Amino acid sequence: MHTNIEGKVVVITGASSGLGEATARHLAAQGASVVLGARRIDKLAGIANEIRAAGGKVEVAATDVTDAAQVKALLDVAVSSFGRVDVLVNNAGLMAIAPMSETKVEEWSRMIDINIKGVLYGIAAALPLFQQQGSGHFINIASVAGIKVFSPGGTVYSGTKFAVRAISEGLRHEVGGTIRTTTILPGAIDSELKLGSSHEESAKFVKDFNQIAIPADSVARAIAYAIEQPAGVDINEVVLRPTVQDF
Question: For residue 31, how many other CB atoms are within 10 A of its CB?
């Protein structure tokens, strides 16, 4: 079946596990050329080998999204390998849950660096390309915690995801026309995000909470839905949760 995904070049950050990995596999199976970035190059190489074995097109690059130069280099790999970039999925994220009273300032900084600045560095790398091409699609992964503050414990995490939502909406308003912007706001999804908390009590809460989690490919399908729309249709926000999740 021919879809609007076939032949598109899709760059994905945080692609070594979870949502990023599931999205890479799903889109590659539908004929997209995928370019995967993450810090764990060994994991990326393994995923790439499996995608190639299944007949997919894939390139990888070690990428720390807190370094703007590395994010730009990831986009450069896409252009040198496939000639263009059609979609950027800003997926890399950190969820470090702990009460504010624990004052985990370093974790706050890490979440701001990965969840907000990482998205901005992706936008900075891709936007000139998209403007030059006259087309492109940003897909930014936020969270239901970007709609409702997840507290106690997730206050700063929520702050970063509210920021992603605000940046995405402003970006859509500024560059819309030929460039699309989609924000995906997932609830409990099975991924390594739940492993990000160093505060013992909070980590246990997150683990218990995630027993209701739905598979990562739930998000991959939502991303595919946004990409496969005709060029004049911009799916701006998709919120998805496990049916039983009340938050």
Answer: 16
